[in-house]
């Protein structure tokens, strides 16, 4: 009938080898109880080592009042009888009844139809237990899968956050690099502009110097040309270190000493006279020469420098 050999041996031992029917009843009454200790006593059997009676107590096998043993369990709520504790527990779990008591009523043996029905009930019970176990395993698998997915999502989120932080660091580094490059380019551009302005200023200064030189050369040429003429007067412009220049007309035959005397009226202390271009400082030995001899006719510009 599909029962394992260990279970059959347990049933035969529990019923003391009373036969097929009692063993079958025990197997049906204990569908999933494999943890029950071996050598358990049969239903209604007294514990080992205790005699059911003695010759001094009366007739052999006689049960006195109050010495009846339990033959079944009774549900006090619905008055149903059950063969053992397991059957009573199944009834309690299905019906919710809680009040049970021992009964001396013996339950008659099962008929073949009842045995088949009982066997089907046992098979159904075992199938339900298997289904419950599979459902529980499925729920546990789903729970583990949820935990795995949650852990995976958390790991993915943490990885994405780390990548975002690294990307932000990279973007900040690139931004700083671009800013440094912009500042460096601006400095180079400013230096180029400064160099350009400096070159322009130098060219302008060179132009001005060339123009001045040309003017002075032209003035010198005009002076030299006019010197060949017979001028009786000359107009001198005397530039002082500070203040407006002194302008005066002298005779061409006047000596340089006359010019010194004229300047002493405005300058105190020692001084020297010199031409502007080409620059020539007159010495004391030249004060006796005439302005015509010194090429200061018909006009000239002299510088007054104090010592």
TrEMBL record:
<dbReference type="InterPro" id="IPR009060">
    <property type="entry name" value="UBA-like_sf"/>
</dbReference>
<keyword id="KW-0963">Cytoplasm</keyword>
<dbReference type="InterPro" id="IPR013087">
    <property type="entry name" value="Znf_C2H2_type"/>
</dbReference>
<dbReference type="InterPro" id="IPR001012">
    <property type="entry name" value="UBX_dom"/>
</dbReference>
<feature type="region of interest" description="Disordered">
    <location>
        <begin position="218"/>
        <end position="249"/>
    </location>
</feature>
<dbReference type="Pfam" id="PF00789">
    <property type="entry name" value="UBX"/>
</dbReference>
<dbReference type="GO" id="GO:0005634">
    <property type="term" value="C:nucleus"/>
</dbReference>
<feature type="region of interest" description="Disordered">
    <location>
        <begin position="23"/>
        <end position="75"/>
    </location>
</feature>
<dbReference type="InterPro" id="IPR015940">
    <property type="entry name" value="UBA"/>
</dbReference>
<dbReference type="GO" id="GO:0032435">
    <property type="term" value="P:negative regulation of proteasomal ubiquitin-dependent protein catabolic process"/>
</dbReference>
<dbReference type="GO" id="GO:0031397">
    <property type="term" value="P:negative regulation of protein ubiquitination"/>
</dbReference>
<dbReference type="GO" id="GO:0005737">
    <property type="term" value="C:cytoplasm"/>
</dbReference>
<feature type="domain" description="UBX">
    <location>
        <begin position="229"/>
        <end position="304"/>
    </location>
</feature>
<feature type="compositionally biased region" description="Low complexity">
    <location>
        <begin position="219"/>
        <end position="228"/>
    </location>
</feature>
<feature type="domain" description="UBA">
    <location>
        <begin position="1"/>
        <end position="30"/>
    </location>
</feature>
<feature type="region of interest" description="Disordered">
    <location>
        <begin position="89"/>
        <end position="114"/>
    </location>
</feature>
<protein>
    <recommendedName>
        <fullName>Ubiquitin-related domain-containing protein</fullName>
    </recommendedName>
</protein>
<dbReference type="Pfam" id="PF22562">
    <property type="entry name" value="UBA_7"/>
</dbReference>
<dbReference type="InterPro" id="IPR029071">
    <property type="entry name" value="Ubiquitin-like_domsf"/>
</dbReference>
<feature type="compositionally biased region" description="Basic and acidic residues">
    <location>
        <begin position="89"/>
        <end position="100"/>
    </location>
</feature>
<dbReference type="GO" id="GO:1903094">
    <property type="term" value="P:negative regulation of protein K48-linked deubiquitination"/>
</dbReference>
<keyword id="KW-0175">Coiled coil</keyword>
<dbReference type="GO" id="GO:0036435">
    <property type="term" value="F:K48-linked polyubiquitin modification-dependent protein binding"/>
</dbReference>
């Amino acid at each position: 009938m599909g029962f394992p050999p260990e279970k059959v041996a347990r049933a035969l031992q529990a019923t003391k080898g009373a036969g097929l029917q009692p063993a079958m009843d025990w197997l049906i009454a204990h569908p999933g109880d494999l943890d029950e200790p071996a050598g358990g006593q049969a239903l209604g059997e007294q514990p080992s080592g205790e005699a059911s009676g003695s010759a001094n107590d009366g007739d052999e096998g006689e049960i006195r009042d109050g010495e009846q043993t339990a033959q079944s369990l009774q549900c006090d709520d619905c008055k149903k009888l059950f063969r053992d504790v397991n059957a009573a527990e199944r009834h309690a779990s299905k019906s919710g009844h809680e009040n049970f008591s021992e009964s001396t009523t013996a339950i008659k043996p099962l008929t073949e139809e009842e045995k088949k029905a009982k066997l089907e009930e046992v098979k159904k019970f075992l199938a339900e237990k298997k289904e419950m176990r599979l459902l529980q395993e499925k729920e546990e698998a789903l729970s583990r899968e949820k935990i795995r997915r949650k852990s995976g999502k958390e790991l993915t989120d943490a990885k994405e956050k780390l990548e975002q932080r690294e990307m932000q660091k990279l973007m900040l580094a690139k931004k700083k690099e671009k800013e440094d490059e912009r500042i460096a380019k601006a400095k180079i551009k400013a230096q180029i502009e400064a160099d350009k302005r400096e070159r322009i200023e130098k060219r302008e200064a060179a132009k001005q110097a060339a123009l001045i030189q040309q003017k002075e050369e032209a003035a010198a040429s005009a002076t030299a040309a006019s010197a060949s003429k017979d001028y009786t007067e000359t107009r001198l412009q005397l530039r002082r270190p500070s203040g407006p220049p002194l302008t005066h007309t002298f005779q061409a035959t006047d000596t340089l000493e006359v010019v010194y005397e004229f300047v002493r009226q405005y300058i105190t202390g020692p001084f020297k006279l010199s031409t502007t271009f080409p620059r020539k400082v007159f010495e004391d030995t030249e004060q006796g020469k005439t302005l015509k001899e010194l090429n200061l006719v018909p006009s000239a510009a002299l510088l007054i420098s104090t010592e």
